[in-house]
Specification:
Layout lengths: L2 H13 L1 E5 L4 E5 L3 H20 L5 H10 L5 H24 L4 H25 L7 H15 L2 E3 L13 H10 L4 H8 L2 H13 L12 H18 L6 H4 L2 H27 L3 H4 L11 H8 L4 H16 L9 H19 L4
Helix pairs in contact: 1-8, 2-6, 4-5, 4-12, 6-7, 8-10
Length: 350
Amino acid sequence: MELYQRDFFMQRVICGYQRYKGKNHQLLIYEPDSDVLYLAQDTYLTTFAECIKDGIWDESEMTTWMYEKNYWNETKEHKVTKQLPDLIEDIKIDMYNNSWDELKTIQLRSTLKVAKTELLQLYSEKHQYDYTTANGVANFMKNYTIVENSVKVAKTKEQYDWADTSIIALMGYKEKNSIMDENIRGIAKYHEWKGIWYAAKTNGNLFGRPSCDMTSEQKRLVFWSAFYDNVGEHPECPPDKILEDDDIIDGWVAIQRRKKEKEKAQQDTQKKISNSKIQNSSEIFIVARDEKHANDIESLNSPQSAALKQARVNQIMKNQNMKDSDFKDVKAKIMMDAVNKGNEIMRGNK
């Protein structure tokens, strides 16, 4: 994002409105305050109820129909909700771990772009009929109500009477010109904004309005500003080069989160095996609640234990009638115990 764009976006977020230039006038498209949001939500509920009464499907019924017609399936659902998000996070982690290698980073960024594009395409495919559902119609009327009650004439600041411009036209303009998250993050790292942000921490007045009346863009800017503050205060805060790259810093954050999750899982497991008999066992079996819990349990294995487990799996794949004493590690342990016992006898320690 160019510097002039960053300044423009920053001032727009601070002001809390978009400027629309018509043929004979300029309009200000404000974000809704609490009163307008209340009215819009009431419109949503009323419209939704009317749609259901008229027999229009809701989202769940549309989803069922899409599955029946094979427009959507479990494979695509798994990709959208699990596979691709996990892949994207893994790529970002690889980007952080290889941030010193410029060529590798470029290759990973290309792979990341492909994964993001596929996720966006599948997401669009999943929601392609949303506008026809009761939820979609109700949401359209909610946004219609918001714009209808949030546009003012630039010169007078009076409510616009909709004499020359349609509400739908401004709804499209507002949506098309919304600020993307990557640009909001750019503002959060911008030195001009940081001065405003830190000053607001002292006087407690950021946008001149209560937090409940902040615009969606203002809330996002506050979120990302706090995010970078938290990263900066971390004892292992990465260098500025990493902080400037959204994908790489996301990878660093994912690593920290996974570390914390693993530590918590270890603490939880330690509580469950606090019994001395269990702790002194060579192997401990824990029943998993679900796939995620199973993965958490699996991560508790040390590298040596993981390698041992894999070796046993490989043996079982070759011979499914294995006994415990047939495993190579068990044989080695039996042999070692016998040698140690023999040494004790030789030393007279019967």
